[in-house]
Amino acid sequence: MLKDFIWNMTGYIPKHQVNPHGDGIIPYVAERIFQLEPEPPAVDSLNEYILSALQEKNLIYFSFFLHHYEPQLNKRIKDFLGVDGGDLYDTDRFIDIKLSCREQMLQKLMDYDPAKGAVSEFAKKEWLRTTKQKKTGAHVVYNCVNEAKFNKKITVEQRNKLRAQLGLKEDDFVVLYCGRIQEVKGVRELLRAFAGIKEHNCRLLIIGNADFAVNTTTPFLKEVEELVQQDTDRIRFTGYIENAELYQYYQCADMQVVPSMWEEAAGLVAIEGMLSGLPLVVTKSGGLVEYAPKEVAMQIERNGIVENLKMAIETVMDNPVERRKMSEASEKRAKDFTRSRFYNSYLKVFE
Fold first, then answer.
1. Do residues 342 and 146 touch, judged by C-beta distance below 8 A?
2. Quick one: which of 268, 239, 265, 266 has its CA closest to 256?
3. C-alpha separations of 183 from 210, 320, 327 in Å
4. Contact between 140 and 118 (Cβ < 8 Å)
5. Which 3 state secondary structure label does DSSP give 2?
6. Can you tell me whether residue 191 is helix, strand or coil?
7. For the whole model, what pTM was predicted?
8. Strand 280-283 vs strand 36-37: parallel, antiparallel, or unpaired?
9. What is the 3-state secondary structure (H, E, C) of 228-257?
10. Residue 55's pLDDT is what?
11. pLDDT band at 351 (very low <50, low <70, confident <90, very high)
């Protein structure tokens, strides 16, 4: 089914330009044939690359997966060859095995259905509805993020300093969007909704790029940039921010909006927002409402989304008591999406 996929590596090149079957390949290179330049974006779980490859039908994410997984693959091949971690081995055979593993993983990717270990009830039900494997069971294992990154706290002084660097005032009410700048993510609709909000100290902070850390320019990104330029006094667009630094930006915000226009299987950015204690506004999109229930988020319909977003943002902004309750509920809810809970839930699938 590869014909259904593209493998667009624009912006990336192999770090080591070699012919895998050429002469004189040293172990150092043999162990790095999947490495890319520049460094692909880091994610909390390599499974995110697999899900992105399936959702977007683009195998660049499979290449990202291989880049990060290669050290583990090297160890497995060395164990198989019995070289016990050394570098005295036949590099031709080593590469043959590695390329064979890549082909097997690629085939598994074509056959992979994430709903068999679904990240939401929505994904599970969709798989059960469409699969021909009616006797196959399906389980829900809710996703997680690296909570240690977002449990870090910044001081009021650090918050005010970062706000100043972004051109934001201490008393501004900051609405955060964090995610890829793609049409299905709803950022255009959010910008249109924000244009209708007249509160003088309300600000919109947009973080993200069209394709993770890749410096990709798309027609939709240009459209978003043009909308931002129409209100530069109130809108800040940072572009891509390294995952390790995101917690500071979340804590600079007063609320988060996840305005997805497609059926989200899960909502990782919503987990990040809840870990940061933010009240949320989310669309009723797939599994997103399972991650961000009503006590932490205003859930809005996608039909009439621009007006719905405007009203929801204004409601959260104008009700500080309710906002505080949502914030407390967010931090509590976030404890359901830790790595340890994910691990234990995953193990139960095999009991």
1. no
2. 268
3. 10, 31, 28
4. yes
5. helix
6. helix
7. 0.70
8. unpaired
9. HHCCCCCEEEEECCCHHHHHHHHCCCCEEE
10. 76
11. low
Spacing of C-alpha 247 from chain mean position = 14
Query: In the numeric block, which tokens belong to residue 38?
Result: 């520049």
b vs e for 20-54, b when ≥16 Cβ sit within 10 Å of the residue's Cβ? eeeeebebebbbbbbbbeeebbebbeeebbbbbbb
What residue type is 340 in one-letter code? S
- CA 179, CA 207: separation in Å to the nearest integer? 6
- Rounded to an integer, what distance in angstroms lies between the CA atom of residue 350 and that of residue 297? 33
Token readout for 226 is 């043009």
d(C-alpha 69, C-alpha 63), whole Å: 10
CA distances from 297 to 8, 208, 315 (A): 36, 22, 11
From residue 170, how far is each of 10, 20, 118, 213, 317 by CA, in Å? 40, 56, 42, 29, 15
**Residue 308 in tokens:** 């719905």
SS3 for 56-122 is HCECHHHHHHHHHHHHHHHHHHHHHHCCCCCCCCCHHHHHHHHHHHHHHHHHHHHHCCHHHEECCHH
| CA distance to 71, 88, 91, 96, per residue, from 28 (Å) | 12, 11, 10, 15
CA angle 198/200/204 to nearest 5° reads 80
Q: How confident is the model at residue 145 (pLDDT cuts 50, 70, 90)?
A: confident
- Range among 5-9, 55-59, 254-258 with highest mean pLDDT value: 254-258
Structure tokens at 148: 């240690």
- What's the pLDDT score for residue 20? 47
Burial of 101 (0-12, 13-18, 19+ CB in 10 A): middle
Tokens standing for residue 229: 């330029």
Residue ranges in the chain assigned as alpha helix (H):
27-30, 47-56, 60-81, 91-111, 121-130, 147-150, 156-165, 187-195, 219-229, 246-250, 268-275, 288-291, 305-317, 320-334, 339-348
Q: Would strands 13-14 and 36-37 be described as parallel, antiparallel, or unpaired?
A: antiparallel
Residues β-bridged to residue 299: 282
Q: Are strands 117-118 and 255-258 parallel, antiparallel or unpaired?
A: unpaired
